[in-house]
Amino acid sequence: IILPDSTQRFNSYTKYMMKKKIAIFLSKLSSYKKIDTFNSEIVLLLEGDVELLPTFCKNTMQAISSVSPHWDSLFLGHCAENYRRIKRKDCWEMSSNSYISKGKYAMCSHAYLISSNGSKKLIDGLKNWNETYISNIISKASVWELETKRRRKWRRPVDLGPDVQIAELMKHEKIFTYLLWPQVALQPWQRSMKDKYFTDMRIPQNCA
Q1: 79 half-sphere exposure, CB direction, 13 A CA radius
Q2: Helix (H) or strand (E) run with residue 93 in it
Q3: Which of 70, 86, 136, 152 has the most CB atoms around it within 10 Å of its CB?
Q4: Rounded to two decimals, what is the model's pTM?
Q5: Do residues 169 and 121 touch, judged by C-beta distance below 8 A?
Q6: Distance between CA 13 and CA 153 in Å, rounded?
């Protein structure tokens, strides 16, 4: 991945993160485009290091049969969903201690189902994302943010990868997404992180 000359003043860490986010974007975009070539209405996408829990198969099949037929994506693993956004009317019990909710602003797309129609919406929603991402860093990143690995706040321009854009599409109802609670697929860091907001290991209060 070759960054524009205007980014050469950035430190090596920032350039590494930019290339990493762009690589993730290109990988996602390639996967969405390939879905059109499959003879299937639903495709399962998994990141390479994802850990599938023992309830993965059972709960995934139950989730598919529990949601409306018109959906774009179904997150089996996720993080950083805004619990307070989930209203009681948008969440229901799928089976004992398992719930489905409408996605409001979820991230960490490490395990999810996507419909053929959903892939088309995501391709359109991520159009030219990499160019916008680079321009945003150049225009908004301060010297302090570019020269340190410390985080003054959770989101810096360099951290805003394609998952944030997908979450924005959820928020503005450009894609129709469901979330499975508790999730049945984890990223390795989610097992050790104590912050339950980022690990999504709680059941939203309006669901239980």
Answers
A1: 18
A2: strand 91-95
A3: 86
A4: 0.86
A5: yes
A6: 17
Cis peptide leading into residue 182 (ω within 30°): yes
Total residues found in the chain within this entry: 208
The alpha carbon of 45 is separated from its chain's Cα centroid by a whole number of angstroms, namely 12
Residue 178 CB partners (closer than 8 Å, separation 6+)? 63, 67, 71, 73, 74, 75, 100, 101, 102, 103
SS (H, E, C) 106-174: CEEEEEEEEEHHHHHHHHHHCCCHHHHHHHHHHHHCCHHHHCCCCCCCCCCHHHCCHHHHHHHHHHCCC
**Tens digit of each residue's pLDDT (9 = 90 or more) over 20-61:** 999 999 999 999 999 888 888 899 999 988 999 999 999 999
